[in-house]
């Protein structure tokens, strides 16, 4: 009998990924109370490096925000971002004129394609209690044929995303199909849009002191299970501690026995694109020559410019979750 585990590795920041994924990061920030203006009600002068994306010595990080946490306007090209906000809120603005506020389980799917700028800010909306932020951002590559598609912005509201409830587990199906339960359609030009690519993004939560069986895939895909929170788990005779990634044999079911705490996993799976990858920061192409061309395009056009008043644009504090699409369509949650 084959062993289901091909490899394990400690989770660093960002997480190690396999084709067709390029990048995945998990943010857990225990932000303090808000100051009434969506920033932290604490001093930023106590040795806090505002430009440090991932500082493990801090319980919360401003990243590149100066007054409100987050990532002010920056470009992307040649891939897609999938942003899952389990706790807290994210304010999105982009060069297409799209905008939104989402959180508490919502997901934003953005195809950068031929180029887009966007900002991702994390407003601290609560002034009477702490503002915990928990989110994942996953970069899914586009094949050469899709590198220059039109940018696309899509919001997946939490209440619309399938949640499969089993005896000992709950599986949030952000992308792909789990035991005949299909996700909301991804962006139209996504590698995930073709079911034959068997792309899956599943956030899995299993009960303490229980057993959960992860079903096998239908084809030979890359499959990585990220164990990001809980006590130890056992797969066969192997004990695995939290903050480890597990590369799995997709042709095998995987029985996972959990320890004394609820175990939380992110599963990323998909058929490899199998093309050369050339990267320079937020630009992903197939060759360095293409990277140079894209960088020149950005210098000349700024991917359409920035239509918002500030690079760290945020929305009205009292506004609920919403999505404003590039064609002017407004959806209030």
Automatic annotation (TrEMBL):
<dbReference type="InterPro" id="IPR011051">
    <property type="entry name" value="RmlC_Cupin_sf"/>
</dbReference>
<dbReference type="InterPro" id="IPR003829">
    <property type="entry name" value="Pirin_N_dom"/>
</dbReference>
<dbReference type="Pfam" id="PF02678">
    <property type="entry name" value="Pirin"/>
</dbReference>
<dbReference type="InterPro" id="IPR008778">
    <property type="entry name" value="Pirin_C_dom"/>
</dbReference>
<feature type="domain" description="Pirin C-terminal">
    <location>
        <begin position="202"/>
        <end position="304"/>
    </location>
</feature>
<dbReference type="InterPro" id="IPR012093">
    <property type="entry name" value="Pirin"/>
</dbReference>
<feature type="domain" description="Pirin N-terminal">
    <location>
        <begin position="61"/>
        <end position="140"/>
    </location>
</feature>
<dbReference type="Pfam" id="PF05726">
    <property type="entry name" value="Pirin_C"/>
</dbReference>
<comment type="similarity">
    <text>Belongs to the pirin family.</text>
</comment>
<dbReference type="InterPro" id="IPR014710">
    <property type="entry name" value="RmlC-like_jellyroll"/>
</dbReference>
<protein>
    <submittedName>
        <fullName>Pirin domain protein</fullName>
    </submittedName>
</protein>
């Amino acid at each position: 009998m084959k062993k289901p585990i091909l490899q394990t590795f400690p989770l660093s920041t960002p997480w190690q990924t396999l084709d067709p994924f390029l990048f995945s990061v998990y943010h857990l920030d225990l932000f303090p109370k808000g100051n009434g203006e969506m920033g932290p009600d604490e001093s930023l002068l106590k040795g806090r490096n505002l430009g440090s994306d991932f500082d493990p010595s801090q319980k919360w990080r401003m990243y590149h925000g100066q007054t409100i946490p987050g990532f002010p306007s920056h470009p992307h090209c040649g891939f897609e971002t999938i942003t899952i906000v389990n706790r807290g809120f994210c304010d999105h603005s982009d060069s297409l004129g799209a905008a939104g506020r989402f959180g508490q389980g919502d997901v934003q799917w953005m195809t950068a394609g031929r180029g887009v700028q966007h900002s991702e800010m994390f407003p601290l909306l609560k002034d009477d209690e702490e503002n915990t932020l928990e989110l994942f951002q996953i970069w899914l590559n586009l094949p050469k044929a899709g590198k220059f598609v039109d940018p696309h912005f899509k919001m997946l509201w939490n209440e619309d995303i399938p949640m499969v409830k089993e005896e000992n587990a709950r599986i949030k199906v952000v992308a792909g199909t789990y035991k005949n339960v299909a996700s909301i359609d991804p962006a139209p030009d996504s590698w995930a849009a073709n079911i034959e690519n068997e792309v899956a993004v599943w956030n899995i939560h299993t009960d303490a002191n229980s057993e959960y069986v992860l079903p096998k895939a239908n084809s030979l895909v890359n499959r990585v299970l990220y164990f990001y929170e809980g006590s130890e788990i056992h797969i066969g005779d192997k004990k695995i501690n939290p903050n480890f990634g597990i590369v799995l044999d997709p042709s095998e079911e995987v029985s996972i026995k959990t320890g004394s705490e609820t175990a939380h996993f992110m599963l990323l799976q998909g058929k490899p694109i199998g093309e050369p990858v050339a990267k320079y920061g937020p630009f992903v192409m197939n060759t360095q020559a293409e990277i140079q061309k894209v960088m020149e395009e950005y210098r000349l056009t700024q991917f359409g410019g920035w239509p918002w008043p500030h690079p760290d644009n945020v929305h009205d504090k009292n506004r609920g979750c919403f999505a404003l699409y590039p064609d002017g369509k407004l959806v209030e949650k």
